[in-house]
Amino acid sequence: PTPTATPDLRVIIIEPRHFQLEARDLPSEGRYYMPSGGMSPHLNSEIISGWGVEEGKAYLAETGRVSGYWSEFYRGTSTVQMPAEASCNIVQYKNSEGAELLITKYSRLFGGIREDGINWIKSNVDMDLGDINEAFYEKWTLSGGEVAVDYRINVVFRNYVFACYGIGYESDVAHEFVENQTRAVLEKLEAAQLVSPEEAEAYFAQLK
User: Fold this and answer.
1) 3-class DSSP state for residue 55?
2) What are the DSSP calls for 82-107, one per residue?
3) Distance (Å, whole) CA 164 – CA 151
4) What is the pTM of this model?
5) What is the spatial distance between Cα 164 and Cα 152, in angstroms, rounded to a whole number?
6) Position 117 pLDDT exceeds 80
C-alpha cells in the first residue's frame, strides 16, 4: 500500500503585526502611503463589540482566534490606474482547524452564517494562494455615476487567515493588483518559523 503522508500541522506563533502589508509591497508608481491611523491591532474585544457578546464569544471559542492586525494605504497619485485604497487584515488562530472555519463556516461565499447586508459576488478566479482562498467583490454607483468596487481576497495559510482589499473606481481595481498584494503578505507568512501544535498550545495558553 502507498504510505499516507503525515499532515504538517505546525503553526506560526509570531504575532500578526510582523506580517502586515507595507508600502514597499505595493507598486512604487502608485506612491502609496499610510494615512494617519492607518494601522492598528484588531482585538478579540472588537469582535465581541461588533458581533454582539453571545455570537462574538461563541465564534472566538470555536475558532480559537488569538488576535489580528490591519494596515491600509492610499494611492498618492492620480496618474495611474490602481486602487485608491489598498489594505490587509491579518488574523492569527491557535491552530489551522480554527483558521479554516472562518472560510468554511463563517464565509458568506461558502453559505456561511455571517450576514452583513452586502451583496457580495464571488469572483471565479483560480489562485495558487495558501491552503484555501476565495475572491469576491461588491459594486456600487457613486453620485457622479461612476461605478466603484471593493475587491477582496481571503487566504488561509496554516493557522492564519488574511484578507486583502482593493477599493476604488471599477476601472482602477484589477484582480491582479489585489492578488499581488495578497501574495506579498503570504510570502512573509511562508517564511515564518514554525512550531509544533504542542509548543503552540503551551505558548497560546500563557498569553493573557
Assistant:
1) helix
2) S-SEEEEEEEEESSHHHHHHHHHTT-
3) 8
4) 0.90
5) 6
6) no
9 Cβ contact list (under 8 Å, min separation 6) = 95, 96, 196, 197
Give the type of residue at 89. N
* C-beta contacts of 74-77 below 8 A and 24+ residues apart: 74/32, 74/33, 74/34, 74/35, 74/38, 75/30, 75/31, 75/32, 75/168, 76/30, 76/31, 76/32, 76/33, 77/29, 77/30, 77/31
Strands 85-93 and 160-169: antiparallel
Give Cα separations from 162 to 102, 141, 144, 170 (angstroms).
10, 27, 33, 23
Of the two residues 178 and 103, the one the predictor is more confident about is 178
Q: Could you tell me the three cell numbers for 153?
A: 481576497
* Distance from C-alpha of 205 to C-alpha of 197, rounded to nearest angstrom: 12
Residue (of 87, 77, 96) closest to 104 by Cα position: 96
Query: What CA–CA distance (Å, rounded) separates 133 from 163?
Result: 10
One-letter-per-residue 3-state SS of 14-26 = CCHHHHCCCHHHC
* Residue 87: half-sphere exposure toward Cβ, Cα within 13 Å: 17
Tell me the pLDDT tens digit for each residue of 19-31: 999 999 999 999 9
Residue with cell 456600487: 140
